[in-house]
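Researcher: I'd like a candidate sequence for this fold, 446 residues long. If you have to choose between options at a position, lean toward the conservative one.
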């Protein structure tokens, strides 16, 4: 008898039609559980609600139109801005128009392939140090893989972009970030109705502590670097932070202002570690369910691309950024549907990557989808872990390299087994995290 196929943890799409209020409530609880069966079948869902017109697009051609062909008519949505602006200000993720273009021009050279490749030794060294620490824990030790990955990518971003000058303790940072995401990172109905962020709702009040903490720590980091640049410019590390402080716009020669430096330190700090950590955590979860793939990755010397295939399949099932949203500036027609100005346009990699019309057995794990020869057949706009178009993730090459180095370092030494009975549930709070962390047992490889 054939064994029953394992379906990795995901909410089963409900088939009932929800009222607008119910949808809002579900979105606040957990957006990935809010999507009904219809979302996974239809290429477009267009609805007029008393809050805002809404359009969800899961047609790759329609997505291409919004993110690329007519990107000028779509800006980062007010909803998402509200979740992110309190922390990220007007940095590269959240800015628009000329301000965004300026920041992207200044930051882009730092993420060119040759710069990213130069980070490989530091990434490997940091991962090795973690493996050595795990080694010291003894056979069968239980770790929280989600938390460990967060700690590791945090160290890597500190060491690569900020030359290890960040003094913020990991545990304090992680706690503050968790409070921020739990409060500010939720789509909450009050905010949907249009209350500005400064209104002291209980959520906004709870987010203040973490925000003050980040502000204090990262302002101090910038001040220290500025002082060093003045005192002993020759000895200053030529890293991302120095670049933010000294690079002139190739067009026009302007330097970043005080706020732009701060907002981008925050932006790169958070955009640059949390997402990759979640991609890795979900990968370990999947590898624990599928030992045959675990063995294949462990013996991948890098040339067969198995690690990349597994990572890509993990980000298909668990896209670390599960929702990309825009608001239309003017009226437009997408996929033959007329939309009004200020329509909220949602592209959900979570839904898109599990769409019934685009993938075979979409809820099941099969890295072969990304095997050479098959990968090229996937529509560029059907698989969007890093977004697409002018706002595509600037750190994509950085993240892919980092994740593969980390997987190789860990899997050579250990197998990670999910502790039996540990509940696993994907929870979207800006990023897609395992709601209860991931308790895993370290098993040394023979
Ligand atoms: C697996 C890891 C990562 C995933 C899944 C991811 C995902 C994404 C996505 C989907 C977007 C586009 C959002 C939109 O269009 O609304 C984005 C943008 C961005 N990401 Fe990443 N990211 C990852 C890693 C990183 C890293 C390592 C960095 C920096 C070191 C980074 C920095 C950024 C920045 C600054 C933007 C905004 C770019 C712009 O608007 O010009 N990300 N990311």
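Model: Candidate sequence:
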């Amino acid at each position: 008898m054939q064994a029953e196929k394992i379906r990795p943890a995901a909410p089963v799409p409900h088939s009932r039609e929800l009222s607008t209020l119910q949808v809002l409530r579900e979105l606040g609880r957990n957006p990935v559980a809010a999507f009904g069966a219809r979302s996974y079948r239809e290429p477009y869902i267009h609805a007029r609600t008393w809050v805002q017109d809404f359009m969800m697009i899961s047609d790759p051609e329609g997505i291409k139109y919004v993110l690329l062909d007519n990107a000028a008519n779509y800006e980062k949505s007010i909803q998402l801005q509200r979740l992110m602006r309190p922390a990220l200000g007007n940095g590269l993720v959240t800015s628009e128009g000329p301000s965004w273009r300026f920041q992207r021009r200044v930051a882009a050279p730092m993420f060119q392939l040759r710069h990213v490749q130069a980070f490989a030794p530091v990434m490997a060294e940091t991962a090795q140090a973690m493996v050595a620490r795990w080694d010291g824990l003894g056979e069968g030790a239980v770790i929280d893989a989600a938390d460990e990955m967060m700690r590791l990518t945090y160290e890597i971003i500190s060491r690569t972009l900020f030359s290890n000058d960040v003094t913020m303790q990991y545990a304090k940072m992680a706690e503050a970030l968790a409070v921020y995401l739990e409060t500010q990172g939720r789509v909450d109905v009050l905010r949907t109705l249009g209350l500005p962020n400064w209104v002291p709702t209980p959520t906004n009040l709870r987010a203040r502590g973490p925000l003050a903490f980040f502000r204090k720590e990262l302002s101090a980091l910038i001040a220290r670097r500025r002082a060093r640049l003045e005192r002993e410019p020759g000895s200053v590390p030529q890293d991302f932070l120095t670049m933010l402080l000294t690079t002139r716009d190739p067009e026009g020669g302007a330097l970043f202002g005080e706020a732009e430096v701060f907002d981008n330190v925050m932006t790169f700090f958070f955009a640059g570690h949390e997402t990759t950590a979640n991609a890795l955590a979900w990968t370990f979860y999947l590898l624990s369910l599928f030992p045959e793939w675990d063995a294949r990755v462990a013996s991948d010397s890098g040339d067969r691309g198995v690690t990349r295939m597994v990572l890509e399949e993990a980000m298909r099932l668990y896209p670390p950024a599960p929702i990309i949203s825009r608001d239309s500036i003017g009226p437009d027609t997408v996929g033959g549907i007329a939309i009004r100005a200020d329509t909220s346009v949602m592209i959900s990699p979570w839904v898109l990557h599990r769409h019934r019309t685009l993938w075979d057995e979409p809820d099941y794990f099969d890295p072969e989808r990304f095997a050479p020869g098959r990968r090229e057949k996937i529509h560029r706009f059907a698989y969007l872990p890093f977004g697409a178009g002018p706002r595509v993730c600037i750190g994509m090459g950085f993240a892919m390299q980092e994740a593969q180095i980390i997987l190789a370092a860990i899997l050579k030494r250990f197998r990670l087994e999910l502790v039996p009975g540990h509940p696993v549930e994907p929870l979207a709070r800006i990023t897609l995290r395992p709601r209860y962390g991931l308790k895993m047992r370290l098993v040394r490889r023979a």
